[in-house]
Amino acid sequence: MDYDFIIVGAGSSGCVLADRLTETGRHKVLLLEAGGSDLRFWVQVPLGYGRTINDPNVNWMYRAEPDVGLGGAADYWPRGKVLGGSSSINAMVFIRGNPADYDDWAAAGNPGWGWTDVLPVFRGIEDNDGGASDFRGVGGKLHISDVSEQLHPLTRIYLKGAREAGLALNPDLNGPMQEGAGVYQLTTKNGRRMSAARAFLKPARRRENLHVETGALVTRLLIEDGKAVGVEYRQHGGLVAARAGCEVIVAGGSVNSPQLLQLSGIGPGALLQSLGGPIVLDNPNVGEHLQDHLGLNYTYRSRVPTLNGVLRPWWGKLWAGMQYVFARRGPLSLSLNQGGGFFRTSPNLTRPNMQLYMQAISTITARQGSRPIHNPDPFEAFSLGLSSCRPTSRGSIMIRSPNPLVPPKITANAYGTEHDIQEMLAAVKFLRRLAATPSLAAVIEEELAPGPGCQGDADLITDIRARSGTVYHPVGTCGMGPSAGSAVVDARLRVHGVDGLRVVDCSIMPNIVSGNTNAAAIMIGAKGAQMILEDAR
């Protein structure tokens, strides 16, 4: 069957693309998703990500390669395999990133991607509880919730401690200033997850010019005479071909987009040749330049009640369930990441380089493979967490086989530079100063992890490597830039060297944004759709 546009991947960017490209009714669009429906209870319940993080029905459940930077550990990489993609299984924190991040994109030779260019796009997709302002949007399809009235009491104590540690109280972490401590805004509405599928795809599916296929794993792009003309996908045990009259748009995310390009012969020529696959275009940048945020928690036994006492016993689970079912409130209606913020590890830095998370729960005794959020520690405790904002380490994602069912090789190269490990060392020292403030010290009985025996730079670095892990923000594997010598797509997200083909998702980021990446992924989908429609005139 023929379409004007074929979109590969119904994730955070793909759902927005499907909505925007079908709005006028002039274009016939096919949206292909390897996963299934998002109409699942634990997908719709905000705290359900504690279950979906280990559910193969909605999650690719990737493993990275053993990493010397993580003490040899093979890090776990959950990615959404469901309508909405990772926006259907993430922790729902809405952070755009620092304005300077986007100015860096433009300065790298990508016109139209500076902060003043992308801010209107962000505002256009948002419906923010806080009301309209120069920084916030209302009336868009993505609802952004202010959950400050439902905070766990420990979050208020954390905010007091952060001020005592020298951080300003920031009333809007997406406002004019990113630095400081504050309450995270969440992509929820009326106690339900507001994924990209719910916000953008659900209303778009009413349109006759949008056709959605689930359980459809795209195995390769069809390229004729240097132009993408369609796709081949596996569904119900057979192979199906579909053709696009205008463009094929790859929106599979930072793991699956480079994988699909490589399977289709677009990527490092030596790798493709070694695997016996076709070579349509030799571009060694496809799959390279992987960037990710690394996170680490410090855990404290608490003198006051935490969510452990609610979510551990059966009667607590019952009470939380009743609150949710009858009122759409309580712990199940929120993220665990209620409080947080951004800070600099050195006053010489021009913008924050670390992100903070406060979680009124702890999971240090959870066995591997369990669902720790729903089975927290059997004592009252909480965690203070960190993640790096702009790591300098770079990894890669490469296919292992021409077989599309074989997961790609993820080489994260965590803490691959001395800069990154020294930055985290400075950050954990600040975390201990934060925990020692009068407000937090009053509720802390003892540090459980790494524990008071971990002292000195060498011990702290060993602990960092042993307990750090991805916070699920991979980007950059189909990077944007003016030249095929250093990038995969140009500033209009067109793949260098192949006509009729774009990549529109987080993989195009030239450098990672400072903070959670889902907001940026949705913005990229909206801006990409705008460019596609402009070029289709």
Task: Give the topology, please.
Blueprint lengths: L1 E7 L3 H11 L6 E4 L8 H4 L4 H4 L9 E6 L5 E5 L21 H9 L7 H11 E3 L13 E3 L8 H12 L15 E4 L4 E2 L2 E2 L2 H9 L5 E4 L3 E8 L2 E9 L2 E13 L2 H11 L2 E2 L1 H6 L6 E2 L11 E9 L5 H4 L2 H14 L11 E5 L10 E6 L21 E8 L7 E3 L10 E3 L6 H18 L2 H4 L2 E6 L7 H11 L1 E2 L30 E3 L14 H18 L2
Parallel strand pairs: 1-2, 1-13, 2-10, 5-6, 13-24, 14-15
Antiparallel strand pairs: 3-4, 7-17, 8-9, 11-12, 12-13, 16-19, 16-22, 16-23, 17-18, 18-19, 20-21
Helix pairs in contact: 1-7, 1-15, 5-15, 12-14
CATH class of the largest domain: Alpha Beta
Task: Give a short account of the largest sheet.
Answer: 7 strands, mixed
**Proportion in β-strands:** 15-25%
CATH superfamily of the largest domain: FAD/NAD(P)-binding domain
Cα separation of the termini = 23 Å
Number of strands: 24
How many helices in DSSP terms? 15
Overall pLDDT: 96
pLDDT below 50 for ≥5 consecutive residues: which ranges? none
- How many structural domains are formed by the residues? 2
Helix content percent band: 25-40%
Give the overall silhouette.
Answer: globular
CATH topology of the largest domain: FAD/NAD(P)-binding domain
